[in-house]
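REQUEST ID: PR-0412
SUBMITTED BY: lab tech R.K.
PRIORITY: routine
TASK: structure prediction, single protein chain
INPUT:
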Amino acid sequence: MNGPDLEVHSLADRPDLLDRGWEVDGGWPAFMLEDPVAAPRYVPAMRLYPELHFVGLVDDRPVARVHAVPIAWPGADSLPDRGWDWALGDAVDSPTQDRAAVSLIEIRVDLSMRGLGLSHRLVDVVRRRLAAHGTRDLVGPVRPTGKGAEPRTAMAEYARRTRPDGLPVDPWLRVHVRAGGRIVGVAPLSMVIPGTLEQWRAWTGQPFDRDGLVDVDGALAPVLVDTTAGHAVYVEPNVWVHHDLRV
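STATUS: complete
OUTPUT:
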């Protein structure tokens, strides 16, 4: 499937797209927008590293976004447990000019454009653009799209599942592997989102009136609730995928 004509521009080339990129509707659940690491750092990351952030256009309409940041390279087998929070936090709190290693932060395709092969094309474009910037190691704390249907399944077990052709069962992991990525581990503490019970009720519409683990729509793992303390915490595991851009 060729799909619609997609133009991909970095914010370095098209700074006017910084604000327009927010038009892309990724359908994220409300609680996913409440990560305390992201609030003070997302826009600064885009301003610090505009050449690592991209907006995809179809007929001049923003339909996709890609966000990435440089990281200090620990090696593909030693990527941190904190995953997403580590990559974004480190990049903004300790700015660098080094582009040898880069971590993806988000690849978002508008809900209206899903199923048209845009995700495959975005990953391919980003690999080529970053390689041109001198990036050798591209990683991503990937959020598997099918994991939300099995929040109680261990992420390591889920990530190991393959089809008869050897590719991952999960669609988003499959996109990365087809593009040349390699699953190298799990980031069990990739994103940590705490909140009061009142906040979690507002974010999810659920009562949060009992202690223990609570499954929430859109979450990859259960939310841990403590009614005595009056708070709940969501700890999201992601899957580290490594793209060696030298090959």
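NOTES: Residues 118-132 form the longest helix (15 residues).
REVIEWED BY: pending
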